[in-house]
Each structure stands twice: as C-alpha cells, then as structure tokens.
C-alpha cells in the first residue's frame, strides 16, 4: 500500500513542479488568483481521493448542453461519485463545503444525469451514484481535507 501511495506522491510533486515552471515562464498567460487557487485545490483533492482508494475517471467534466462542470468523477468501490471541490486558503467563519448550495447541487445533479446517459440504459439503473463534497484548505502548514461522502442526494 505504501508503494502505491509513494507513486501518487511522485505524480503530485511532478505536476506541482510543472505548474511552478509554467507560472514563471509563461508571463501574462496566467489565470486570476482565485481561479488558480481553485485549480490547485481540485488537483490536491484528486490526489487525496486517489490515496483514499478512489479511481478518478474525469476531471472538470462538462456537457455541451448544460452550464457548469463536475470537478471530479470517480469510483469509490461500487459507487460512481460526482465530486464537488471547494478550496479555501484559510479556515474562517464559513466552511468551504457551505458554498455547495442548492443551485450548485442542482447543477451537479443535472450534469450527473447527462454523464450517465453515456451508459447503456440497462446498466445505468444499476449504478449506485453518490454526490460527494471535498473541502480543501491550502494552509501554510500544508493542505487539509474534509471529505463528505453522500453530501447530498438526487432530490
């Protein structure tokens, strides 16, 4: 188990290094700071979920017919999980997961339905689906995570 975790650590470090080099060599091609923070959080959450045993199959998945995206889609055992990631650089009054409000939940549910339409109909009904939220706190002392499995339901 430790060997697999070490390999994930190496992959995460390499991607971080590539981002660091790109940020210093591609002047003016960057993104807004709050978007960069969100992207760092999503990538950190991806590696954290992999360490927890998730098999991530999609990142920032979109549908041409709907607005928004699903941050991560992955399997946790038999469960197909649609994961919303919220990132903060400090632990303040409101926790990161509180940003996944009713509108965001409706959007993720709609995108989940669109994603599931790619599966054959007879299989689609048998796939157990779960909506997870991951709060990522990028602190001076390192990243901290809170994973909320089954944070909200279809209804």
UniProtKB/TrEMBL annotation:
Pfam families: UPF0102. Keywords: Endonuclease, Hydrolase, Nuclease. GO terms for molecular function: endonuclease activity; nucleic acid binding. The keyword Hydrolase applies. InterPro entries: Restrct_endonuc-II-like, tRNA_endonuc-like_dom_sf, UPF0102_YraN-like. The keyword Nuclease applies. Belongs to the UPF0102 family. PANTHER family: UPF0102 PROTEIN YRAN. This is UPF0102 protein HDF17_000511. It comes from Granulicella arctica.
